[in-house]
Design the sequence.
């Protein structure tokens, strides 16, 4: 049965209990001037077009405002990423705006770092304190001793601050703790990283292969809409996941793989596709190099070889390979997003990129397509030329991670612990990212923090990292501020505007204001010549020949329709040095790595333990939304998924077996203990792993709702395995045993 888009999203939000899923479709009044436009459908409301910040996807929203309050947020039909719909988190934005636990005023630490004790301060006093702290660091250690950790669109103002300040140490956990390996792998294979949104054409795919990627639970709005369209149009899914995810429930083939063995499966799929000549020979002859080496490499990697490794039966491997190969070229191997699993992640992503090439899907409809940026000139501003750039501090002293293309946030943490890098970092600005949940091995992050001479946190909510700050600066939510344009490369080029729907509550301030004021206090004000973010954006648009007010009506300006694939006239673009898709990588070989992906067994856990896996829920974006009371109604806390049969044979539970919903504590191989969490006993997960939705188990007391609700996978991630190619931190290498809550270990 074909699924409608709405049905699919509702399934993705299973348990949402009627939350404002797929909200929007505000077409009644479409076509009106809506910079601040009365909405005839909702008596006296006005609507303001902006873009969402409940995750990084950047969907276009319409904020409905009445009497100075935002009453609801709906999807902007004019915006290519939302297309009139929002995911549940986006629709729940007022839960963030009106969160009673928001940071309300600047705070200055009064006790030991990490004690989470602060006194309220005026903006002037707080910024003076930050300026003094940063100037002290600069005077003693140089400007490069300051690092910025950033996540979210407001980070652009602080990145500009860092350029003016003279430090190259700007990192985001979204690289080395998330998508980095796939960027390295696709750059090696095709000469270009994928970026965000991923340049994939889900809507026209005939077969979609998801490897550990649970779209529908991982709610990237546009992709979920397109996935629903594709399924509605008859596309088939192949889902590889130790857990029977929502996507698996829609799949033609679900492969419940043993965690850590994906490369073996990918090699076996390639073996079948090569042996049965299901690859696109003409395409490969034209665009690729290394097919002979690949054929030889996979010749003995039969499904029978892969079976004992992966736990997936040969028939299932063959049948799914035939579907993948037989659907070419509209056979999409989804590259995934959170790709840091086992430390061999660039090689796994390489195997996925190679498989995509075998079926000829790079540059083709239903595969990987061309995304184009809407070009808007930069604001004309001069920046100082750093006297002598010392290079980034994020790599180990001895060198390493030759193919890292962005700064490693984990590397910046390491460089703050003395002697780990070429030079030590002494000051941090942390903008919008809770490093306690984002980074592996919390003890190392805390150790790094204790070596800092100054730490300033800018955020909307008092996340765990704020408790360690010297100064906390409260930022206004995205509904209360302007920001820079959002113009990522996409199928249809566009630029979207963020507009303030209501005035900032409490004593919070927009990020642009904080960065500009701080720059003024450290003598860098001349590098922030704009009056405000609105003037900044207006200037950029003016240079493009556009008027701010005109773009403000719909909140988005669209570029011309451009061809996105070979079928539409776009050339198959490959930007490697050889000009060919590199199935066999001479670059990797030259660096001492396997030129073709090879399977190496992963370490097993102690007897009686389960591999800890984590993922996403449609109602939440990591820890950023767990305190949102609106989103808590349909999804109040995470639970640990545990195979029901495995639970029955747990040692120590023979007399009184675990009951579904009972609270347990997870204890990892190093003795780290989780907060109590409800257990979900299910057949929907393999018996050798457990699963937690990421972001819960918060230890920040000031987050009144989220404090100690559910369990944190980050707290249990005391081990990680670094990808030697690009420095990503593989985190699925931890094992836990299960204790009844209240039991003493
Ligand atoms: Fe907002 Fe959801 Fe879009 Fe993310 S996917 S930007 S949370 S509506």
Sequence:
């Amino acid at each position: 049965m074909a699924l409608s888009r709405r049905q699919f999203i509702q399934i993705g939000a299973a348990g949402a209990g009627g939350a404002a899923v797929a909200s929007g479709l505000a077409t009644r009044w479409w076509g009106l001037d809506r910079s601040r436009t009365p909405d005839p459908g909702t008596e006296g409301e006005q609507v303001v077009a902006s873009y969402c910040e409940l995750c990084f996807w950047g969907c276009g929203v319409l904020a409905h405002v009445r009497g100075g309050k935002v009453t609801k947020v709906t999807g902007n039909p004019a915006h290519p990423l939302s297309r009139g719909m929002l995911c549940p988190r986006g629709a729940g934005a007022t839960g963030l705006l009106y969160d009673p636990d928001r940071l309300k005023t600047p705070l200055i630490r009064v006790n030991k770092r990490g004690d989470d004790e602060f006194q309220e301060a005026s903006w002037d006093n707080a910024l003076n304190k930050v300026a003094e702290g940063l100037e002290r660091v600069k005077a003693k250690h140089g400007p490069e001793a300051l690092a910025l950790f950033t996540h979210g669109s407001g980070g652009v103002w602080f990145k500009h601050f860092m350029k003016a300040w003279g430090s190259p140490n700007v990192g985001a956990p979204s690289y080395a703790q998330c998508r980095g390996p796939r960027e390295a792998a696709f750059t090696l294979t095709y000469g270009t990283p994928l970026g965000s949104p991923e340049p994939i054409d889900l809507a026209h795919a005939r077969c979609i292969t998801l490897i550990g990627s649970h779209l529908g639970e991982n709610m990237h709005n546009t992709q979920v809409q397109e996935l629903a369209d594709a399924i509605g149009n008859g596309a088939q899914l192949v889902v590889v996941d130790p857990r029977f995810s929502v996507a698996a429930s829609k799949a033609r083939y679900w492969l419940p793989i043993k965690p850590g063995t994906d490369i073996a499966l990918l090699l076996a799929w390639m073996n079948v596709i090569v042996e049965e000549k299901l690859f696109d020979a003409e395409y490969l002859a034209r665009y690729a190099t290394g097919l002979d080496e690949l054929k030889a490499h996979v010749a003995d990697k039969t499904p029978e070889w892969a079976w004992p490794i992966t736990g997936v039966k040969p028939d299932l491997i063959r049948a799914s390979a035939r579907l993948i190969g037989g659907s070419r070229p509209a056979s999409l191997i989804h590259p995934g997003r959170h790709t840091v699993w086992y430390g061999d992640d660039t090689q796994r992503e390489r195997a996925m990129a190679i498989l995509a090439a075998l079926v000829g899907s790079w540059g083709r409809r239903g595969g990987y397509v061309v995304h184009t940026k809407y070009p808007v000139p930069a604001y004309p501003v001069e920046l100082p030329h750093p006297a002598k750039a010392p290079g980034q501090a994020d790599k180990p002293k001895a060198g390493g991670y030759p193919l890292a293309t962005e700064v490693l946030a984990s590397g910046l943490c390491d460089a703050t612990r003395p002697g780990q890098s070429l030079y030590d970092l002494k000051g941090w600005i942390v903008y919008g990212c809770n490093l306690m949940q984002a980074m592996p091995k919390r003890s190392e992050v805390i150790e790094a923090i204790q070596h800092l001479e100054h730490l300033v946190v800018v955020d909307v909510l008092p996340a765990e990292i704020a408790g360690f700050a010297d100064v906390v600066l409260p930022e206004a939510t995205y509904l209360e501020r302007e920001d820079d344009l959002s113009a990522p490369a996409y199928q249809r080029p566009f630029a979207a505007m963020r507009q303030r729907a209501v005035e900032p509550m409490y004593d919070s301030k927009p990020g642009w204001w904080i960065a500009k004021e701080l720059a003024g206090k450290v003598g860098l004000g001349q590098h922030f010549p704009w009056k405000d973010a609105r003037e900044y954006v207006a200037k950029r648009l003016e240079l493009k020949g556009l008027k701010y007010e005109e773009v403000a009506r719909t909140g988005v300006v669209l570029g011309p329709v451009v061809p996105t694939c070979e079928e539409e006239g776009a050339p198959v673009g490959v930007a490697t040095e050889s000009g060919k898709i590199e199935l066999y990588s001479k670059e990797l070989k030259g660096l001492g790595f396997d030129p073709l992906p090879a399977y190496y067994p992963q370490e097993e856990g102690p007897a009686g333990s389960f591999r800890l896996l984590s993922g996403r829920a449609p109602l939440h974006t990591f820890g950023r939304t767990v305190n949102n009371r609106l989103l808590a109604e349909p999804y109040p806390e995470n639970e640990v998924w545990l195979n029901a049969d495995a639970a029955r044979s747990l040692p120590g539970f023979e007399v009184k077996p675990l009951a579904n919903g009972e609270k347990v504590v997870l204890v990892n191989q190093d003795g780290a203990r989780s907060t109590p969490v409800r257990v979900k006993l299910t057949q929907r997960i393999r018996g050798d792993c457990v699963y937690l939705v990421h972001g819960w188990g918060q230890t920040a007391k000031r987050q009144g709702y989220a404090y100690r609700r559910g369990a944190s996978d980050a707290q249990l991630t005391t081990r990680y395995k670094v990808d030697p190619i690009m420095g990503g931190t593989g985190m699925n290498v931890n094992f836990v045993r299960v204790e009844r809550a209240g039991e003493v270990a």
